[in-house]
């Protein structure tokens, strides 16, 4: 199969600090290998269905632009949360997509995203086979949540973990400044998988004692036991810093953040989508322990803080894009790029291809045997796993004191 | 007066990312100029009164340690929120302090802090004069809020502003990722002075349109006008990012965050100290505009994010410490180091001494003539003022993927 022809690439799902590095990898590799036109879908498959796409060579004009793109957070092409319907239920959508792809003479289709995006690759590649269409479909994984199966980790996780480890270290310094009892509750993303919350453990270093407790969504959360544990710990140490997952829920399946919501704004505005696990717990502790409490919610910062990314992560994200293009040009389809760990120390990682069916719609959680101290901390196995992923920095290009980004106007 | 002798230095009030750079400036300069013992108060004047202090040469052993200290957030010596009583009301406290200072044979006393700390310098220096004590008292300003009088700006503001400008730029990229209506409300510190909230305007650069509106605490806040303005703006632009001060209050003096509190957790835990201006406004908008809203609260991150400081700020903070020591060794007392702007472009700043009485207990707000667009934005005069203060970076010393800090055990 020729390495020439046209390609199209899209980004989908929640952004990360390095999802554009994967896009840069796809673009640069395809361009260098002689792709004719490199189309970019605006807002993923949803935009494609509305005939919204760009010629990426018009927006990325130089290798400098490629480097700036690698340092630009969020999704350069825009994103969507569109789940492709089953072909049996709605074949029309598939016909529309392929009509557009044919009109653009697309040979290779790349999609950078998480579970739903891999589901899209799975369905489109299956449809192509069924209709004997020559177009190849390859997925590039991304998600800060690190909850994809098969792959050792996902591009985006390492940088989010580095941001969390760095910020938590700084928060600990700040929390210890006064000679008084205080509890700081840090809320971290990851509704069902605790990989990011566990990353708070990275703050423990030679000169820093780290966080005092970590609560992951993998285990049922007990509100009263929580307060008791904090109370006991406070007898030995005045200032505590506790990391909690946004997705904590009690044994009966109630999200802690919803407990907050129910009291929060429902009555005033009839709107419940908010609250915050951290704020709810901080206030419960303030009421029960009668001490000062504080909440820090990293919210969107942990997925867009491109000014403090992991070089390992940025380069792996780029490489994932490169491998996707190389594979497609060899004729591979219905595949996704995955990482296979050879060794943690020294760090050695293989970049491979996997059948997308194996990864789509499967969620990987933190192994329960890694959760220790009666569900309040994470074991050294996690640190051994995560530390290689946060190594190295890639300095932003600073202009007038702020990071420069590449933006599609 | 001899340049030898013993000195003591303390840190007070809320920490900043560069308050330790001022401490490094005091330590390094005093050491190089031949100070005999350099004492550090644990938790400021409060700790001193409890005879808690350290010999700083034991904790800072090398020039490498000095450099790490410059890169360590929060207060290395610990801090306090202690306001010295008036001598007429409680002379005993003064007698206690001077008894300790005499026992340690202190010749020079330095205090790094904000308004209250300068008040401490004012009172102690006045007391020393009244009792013809030879000890000199010099203040080094710090506060991310930038609300001190006399000085052009305060050490700590530039780095907080750089963190805010950088993070807001990243949040804007993230907010524009979906093709849908959404409002992101970013809450920024500064209860009475809007210097930090105004810094969100720095995010407007060649490639970034910046935030859509900025609401400062200097003006009365109108909840309904706010919703109307957002609604009107949303007709032209889908995704909006709005910066609000934590200290917004309505014409009758009610804090917006308290409006949230009153509904939030009072009923459940009888505890009201929380809420969040940003979350309250985001939920009001969600209810009134029926669109997705999101809150980002920088909280303590904006004062401790030492991984992204301004080199100008770090160096000025260090220089402020140096000047304080040089002045004290010349016999100056009852003074505070201030900055006097000669030119914004090119940036030229004089470091001078001011009578501490002029700066203590005075609060400097954003000039009302700088607040434009019917109270929804900040003028270019602010950008001209703030931009020189966020220039340059000082890379953290990264160890195993995370910034190294200097910690007093």
Task: Kindly describe this structure.
Helices cover 38% and strands 19% of the residues of chain A. Chain A contains 16 helices and 15 strands. Chain A has helices at residues 19-32, 44-49, 56-59, 63-70, 91-103, 115-130, 157-175, 195-198, 223-234, 256-263, 266-269, 277-289, 301-304, 311-329, 356-359, 380-386, and strands spanning 6-11, 38-41, 53-55, 106-113, 136-141, 182-188, 213-215, 239-245, 292-297, 335-344, 347-355, 371-372, 377-378, 398-399, 402-403.
Structural class of chain A: alpha/beta
Give the averaged pLDDT of chain A, no decimals.
94
Global Rg of chain A: 23 Å
Number of helices in the DSSP assignment of chain A? 16
Unreliable segments of 5+ consecutive residues of chain A? 262-274
Strand content of chain A: 15-25%
Give a quick summary of the entry.
The structure is a homodimer of 409-residue chains. Chain A has 409 residues and is α/β, with parallel strands linked by helices.
Describe how the helices and strands are arranged.
2 copies of one chain form a homodimer.
Chain A: E1 6-11, H1 19-32, E2 38-41, H2 44-49, E3 53-55, H3 56-59, H4 63-70, H5 91-103, E4 106-113, H6 115-130, E5 136-141, H7 157-175, E6 182-188, H8 195-198, E7 213-215, H9 223-234, E8 239-245, H10 256-263, H11 266-269, H12 277-289, E9 292-297, H13 301-304, H14 311-329, E10 335-344, E11 347-355, H15 356-359, E12 371-372, E13 377-378, H16 380-386, E14 398-399, E15 402-403
Helix pairs in contact in A: 1-4, 1-14, 9-12, 10-12
